[in-house]
Specification:
Blueprint lengths: L4 H20 L4 H14 L11 E2 L5 E8 L2 E8 L4 E4 L3 H12 L11 E5 L5 E6 L2 E6 L4 E7 L22 E2 L5 E6 L2 E6 L5 E3 L9 E2 L4 E2 L5 E8 L5 E6 L9 E6 L9 E8 L4 E3 L9 E9 L5 E8 L4 E8 L5 E8 L12 E4 L4 E6 L6 E6 L5 E4 L6 E9 L4 E7 L9 E7 L6 E2 L6 E6 L5 E8 L2 E9 L5 E7 L3 H5 L6 E6 L6 E7 L10 E6 L19 H6 L4 E6 L8 H5 L10 H14 L3 E11 L1 H12 L6 E5 L10 H8 L5 H5 L12 E7 L8 H12 L5 E5 L8 H17 L12
Parallel strand pairs: 38-39, 38-40, 40-41, 41-42, 42-43
Antiparallel strand pairs: 1-2, 2-3, 3-4, 5-6, 6-7, 7-8, 9-10, 10-11, 11-12, 13-15, 14-15, 15-18, 16-17, 18-19, 20-21, 21-22, 22-23, 24-25, 25-26, 26-27, 28-29, 29-30, 30-31, 32-33, 33-34, 34-35, 36-37, 37-39
């Protein structure tokens, strides 16, 4: 019997060499340059698509800037006359500005911003080179004003609770009294004789009165909270490389985390005339997360406050009688999972008719309800159906109508926002904004008119002026021209829909391809993930240039973005998937979506799938390799909250619940670090002021103890970030190496 070992070994050797060459060959640096230049090449290529109205005074006229092939034009529209005209003579204005400043001014590209016209259109204010200016249109004379105030961003995000003793004294509406805190108690001072009166006597270091006090409109009563403070949770930073000195710096600030104690506040009443302390019934507000938003009625008969019970499953509006201190629940909102107080709560008090408009998901969808504020009973449900109220734009008490923003009511993409009008009694709901797409609107000061701009991710914006009464068209404003953008070779995102884990629910996402896309090739797939339950994240409106996702695709990838179950703006059941289950992150839906897309497009290689994200997206990206490694092979996670017990209290307890239970461990990347498979790159900023940077370091520690291979980029001085320019390069390099099997450029030999 003949053997073929020599030939066999030959083929093995050749295969090994070919594999070695494929793995270690270097990507052409020009591919990176093309990706870097993509945004620049596609910027300012969309014309007539940037209508952002600035309403002029109380008139029904507005200004907008119009980007055209010849430059930016400034247009004024008169809604009453359905007319538009040039806002001013740009050539004449440019000449005046050039004479005043000595700078070369191109009338097609005026270097001015923040234009505000006078009501009579006789002139306008603007800013130029950090100075305020005024232009008189009678003769185009310019007057230079003061320097604009610096809009410096704060480097500190304060996640701590308010210092209840930090407020200034509070003057009564009739100006006769001033209320203040001294020695932890409530005092008032009479203005005419400066005589002081102590109103409370039970305040002390461990339980004191808040300096944030609310006078009744008639100045006869004062509502104040007695506060039982909680120990502050401080987090500490060492900035290793400060810009202004050689030695490191130490910083610390308050940052409450899940399970920490929180302040408890108990509303109290004081009668100014009798100097009497009226005790308020507080039996119904145990285990507070918050008690706030004290509001007096206009007639001073009562005040209300809002009570959010710890765990966010019970939320109440409570009414307090100003004479007796007795309390009654006006609105009672309960949920077996969570009440989305931070994203969906809406309240409007119609005092003249003793009514409250309130948003609730109690029927499975976010809708509006009309309450009788005297009895606390629901008079009627205002909106209903399998769609979502996204926002209330305006409440017209006189005509008992509400203008609102909603999604899911019209056919097509359930995330598209449309504008509706509906009566307080729930009748006469009417669509005001036409045109399939995501609508952005701006109403005139008297709300008789609105500018309606709509688009989709792959169809250009259209802007029109409508009447609020019935949504009828007043005039067309602009229709965007994207021919210049398409001429650059940019491929617009494709919207793709597939069924989720239940086999019924539509999951929506987008697919982004490189400019040199070739359907005969096989492309690795990279998911840009953000699965935070507080919103939905797949873009819905047209973007006038390439994005960072396009740049990543340009290196040879298909990039996708998906809204899986557990994110917001769909049904309550869709949202509830996140409850005590953040590790889920909609992954079962995302995986099915990508499999369906690959079924239609075989060039999507699901043997090579990567994922990246920042913050909550960083947690999910790393979690993909822990909990779903059979599908995801490579991940880049930036500034992740890798254990929800380490992140800010309000966000994490809302979705993961309270008291802190074992489900926190089940969703923890740190506790599950031993599960890691695939290739992982972690990044975090040394001075991250959103997510405690120790969260990433603790994940690193757990991976080291589990003897796992991974890469880690520590960014000195950086705050909450995806990594900036350097981080973006590291992310690209990691995917190029581990998904394409190519070496990135040798940056150390290429200079800057």
């Amino acid at each position: 019997m003949r053997t073929f070992y020599p030939r066999y070994h030959f083929f093995i050797a050749v295969a090994f060499l070919l594999q070695y060459q494929a793995v270690f060959s270097q990507i052409d640096p020009d591919v990176y340059r093309r990706a870097d230049d993509l945004i620049k090449r596609t910027t300012d290529k969309v014309f007539y698509g940037n209508v952002k109205p600035v309403w002029i005074g109380k008139s029904n006229s507005f200004l907008y800037e119009n980007l055209t092939p010849e430059g930016t034009r400034y247009i004024i529209v008169n809604a009453e006359k359905a007319s538009k005209k040039a806002a001013f003579d740009q050539i004449r204005f440019a000449k005046s500005l050039q004479e005043e400043t000595g700078a070369a001014i191109d009338p097609r590209k005026l270097p001015i911003r923040d234009i505000v016209f006078s009501d009579n259109l006789a002139g306008f204010a603007f800013t130029y080179e950090n100075n305020n200016w005024i232009c008189n249109l009678k003769d185009y004379r310019l007057k230079k004003g003061e320097k604009t105030s610096e809009r410096g961003r704060s480097d500190r995000w304060d996640w701590g609770f308010r210092d209840e003793l930090s407020n200034d004294p509070v003057e009564s509406p009739d100006k006769k009294w001033t209320a203040f805190i001294r020695n932890f108690n409530v005092y008032v001072r009479k203005k005419d004789d400066n005589k002081e009166y102590q109103l409370s006597f039970d305040g002390g270091l461990g339980e004191y009165y808040s300096s944030f006090m609310r006078w009744s409109p008639d100045s006869r009563k004062l509502a104040v909270c007695r506060v039982k403070p909680a120990e502050k949770h401080m987090i500490h930073y060492i900035e290793s490389s400060p810009a202004d000195q050689l030695q490191p710096k130490h910083f610390s600030y308050e940052y409450q985390k899940p399970g920490d104690a929180v302040p408890q506040k108990f509303p109290q009443l004081f009668d100014i005339e009798s100097k009497k302390h009226i005790k308020v019934d507080d039996a119904g507000i145990p285990d507070q997360y918050s008690v706030d938003d004290i509001k007096w009625s206009r007639d001073s008969r009562y005040f209300t406050y809002e009570y959010n019970k710890r765990g966010h499953q019970l939320y109440r509006i409570i009414k307090v009688d100003a004479e007796t201190g007795s309390s009654a629940v006006v609105v009672n909102e309960e949920s077996p999972t969570f009440f989305d107080y931070s994203g969906k709560m809406y309240r409007y008090d119609a005092e003249d008719t003793d009514e409250i408009i309130w948003a609730s998901e109690r029927d499975g969808w976010n809708h509006l309800y009309l309450y009788d504020s005297k009895s606390g009973n629901v008079k009627n449900q205002i909106t209903s159906g399998e769609w979502v109220v996204r926002d209330v734009v305006y409440v017209d008490e006189k005509n008992r109508q509400i203008i609102l923003k909603g999604s899911g009511k019209e056919p097509g993409d359930p995330y598209f926002n449309y504008i509706y009008k509906v009566g307080f009694d729930g009748t006469g709901i009417r669509l005001l904004s036409g045109g399939e797409g995501n609508h952005e609107v701006s109403f005139s000061p008297d709300r008789k008119y609105f500018v309606d701009t709509w688009s989709t991710i792959n169809t250009p914006p259209v802007s029109v002026l409508r009447r609020t009464e019935d949504g009828s068209l007043v005039m067309e404003l602009e229709k965007a021209d994207i021919s210049g953008l398409l001429a650059t070779g940019l491929r617009l995102p494709e919207v793709f829909v597939a069924k989720g884990r239940d086999g019924k629910t539509d999951i929506w996402g987008i697919i982004i391809r490189p400019t040199d896309f070739d359907p005969s090739r096989k492309y690795p797939v990279i998911e840009d993930i953000y699965a935070g339950p507080h919103d939905s994240f797949v873009p819905k409106s047209f973007r006038p240039s390439a994005t960072a996702m396009h740049q990543l695709a340009e290196l040879g990838f298909i990039v996708v973005k998906i809204d899986g179950m557990g994110t917001s703006n769909r049904s309550k059941a869709f949202h509830d998937v996140c409850w005590k289950n953040l590790k889920d992150a909609g992954f079962p839906d995302r995986i099915l979506w990508m499999k369906a897309a690959a079924g239609k497009y075989p060039y999507m290689d699901l043997e090579r799938v990567g994922i990246y994200g920042t913050s909550a997206g960083g947690q999910s990206a790393a979690g993909a390799l822990l909990f779903f490694p059979e599908f995801y092979k490579v991940a880049v996670a930036s500034c992740g909250c890798h254990d929800n017990r380490m992140d800010k209290i309000w966000w994490n307890e809302q979705w993961m619940g309270w008291p802190v239970g074992e489900e926190y461990s089940w969703s923890s990347n740190v506790d599950n670090a031993w599960r890691l498979k695939g290739k992982l790159l972690l990044m975090n900023g040394e001075m991250d002021n959103n997510v405690d940077p120790s969260s990433t370091v603790q994940f690193v520690n757990a991976l080291v103890k589990a003897n796992k291979d991974f890469e880690y980029v520590f960014l000195p001085g950086a705050r909450h970030t995806s990594g900036g320019t350097y981080g973006e390069r590291k992310r690209r390099d990691f995917f190029v190496k581990n998904l394409l099997g190519l070496n990135p450029p040798d940056w150390n030999t290429m200079g800057k």
